[in-house]
Design goal:
single chain; 349 residues; mainly beta; Agglutinin, subunit A; 3 domains; 4-stranded antiparallel β-sheet
């Protein structure tokens, strides 16, 4: 009798154990994610739960690297509507949306319509939270379509021309506040598509267009021993994406709160993020630093110079190292009077 009881207890334990393990990456229609609960992707790469950034006491639903000692958040749901206490609950609402509740108040929702008892939310090892209709097995919402300040492997950054969906990065306000900050990193599809870093509406930096291997203003992207970048430009979509060859390497593309875009990779030894590249790199990397018909060179005492045949439009400001007014022609242009074209190398135009 004792051995039978022991066997039954063991079977019950195994049932509960495997049930728990199989559910750790999933939020079901009747499941509540309370403050202190954590949803973990199947291989333990990413985790979802409540967190407080920096010195803040506010609580947010976020996704972070689960195997990194320094908590590094890559996505925030309620970035503009924090929970003020530890009373938040993430669950499916009566309309079938995954929503964040603070008592009776809804602070955030996926805002799509489908039956709650036919859907689940699953956190993948790519860091993507995906809501799937169980019957049709169709994804009806995913966090990768609504990035915050981090561009992850497998994510698309750019435009869906059919639906109008625009995936772009927005900085945090500060290390203590993940609300939408001053900076955005967004694709401009006009002409040769390229990405612009903006502060408000002001352009601060640009990536340059895709040259077949990389964005031409970021030559470090051509180092393909870790990453594989791809750029798609067709009638349906314009976007950039990338993959990481070795899935044990943790790497992110971040727009930080100071207005810098940077690629960094986690180093297990010193336990820190190591920056591969960042932009803007220096004064000459700022958008329009020397104005129209001006050229910028960080290796010269006076960074700005005019192209041949041009002179500073505002000489006084120019020699005070303000080249934003640019240059103008020394004389009127008449094609055929000795005017022609000059070739310039190692410049971003």
């Amino acid at each position: 009798m004792t051995s039978l009881k022991t066997l039954l207890n063991l079977l019950l334990f195994l049932f509960l154990f495997f049930q728990y393990c199989s559910a750790t990456d999933t939020i079901s229609p009747n499941q509540l994610v309370k403050d202190g609960n954590v949803v973990v992707s199947i291989d333990g790469i990413f985790a979802l739960g409540f967190f407080s950034p920096g010195n803040s006491k506010n609580r947010y639903i976020g996704i972070w690297y689960n195997k990194i000692q320094e908590q590094t958040v890559v996505w925030v749901a309620n970035r503009d509507n924090p929970v003020k206490r530890s009373t938040g609950i993430l669950k499916f609402d009566q309309y079938g949306n995954l929503a964040l509740f603070d008592q009776s108040d809804i602070l955030w929702s996926t805002n799509v319509s489908f039956l709650a008892n036919n859907s689940i939310a699953k956190l993948s090892d790519s860091g993507n939270l995906v809501i799937t209709d169980v019957k049709s097995k169709r994804a009806v919402w995913q966090s990768f379509d609504y990035p915050t300040n981090t561009f992850l492997s497998g994510m698309k950054l750019g435009l869906n021309l059919k639906t109008g969906l625009n995936r772009f990065l927005t900085s945090w306000k500060s290390l203590d506040d993940p609300a939408r900050g001053d900076y955005t990193f967004e694709l401009d599809p006009r002409g040769s598509p390229e990405f612009f870093l903006r502060k408000g509406l002001t352009r601060r930096w640009r990536s340059g267009p895709w040259d077949g291997r990389a964005l031409n203003g970021v030559p470090e992207m051509t180092r393909s021993f870790i990453f594989n970048y791809n750029f798609t430009d067709n009638d349906d979509e314009i976007f950039m994406t990338y993959t990481i060859y070795n899935t044990s390497i943790f790497s992110r593309f971040l727009l930080d709160e100071l207005g810098s875009v940077q690629r960094s990779t986690w180093l297990d030894g010193p336990r820190r993020w190591n920056t591969f590249w960042s932009g803007p790199r220096d004064k000459c990397d700022h958008y329009g630093e020397c104005g129209a018909y001006g050229s910028c060179n960080s290796n010269t005492a006076l960074e700005c110079s005019c192209l041949p045949g041009f002179t500073p439009k505002s000489p006084r400001d120019w020699y005070l190292r303000d080249g934003s007014h640019g240059c103008e022609r020394k004389r009127d242009f008449f094609c055929g009077n000795g005017d022609g074209f000059l070739m310039f190398g190692h410049v971003k135009v």
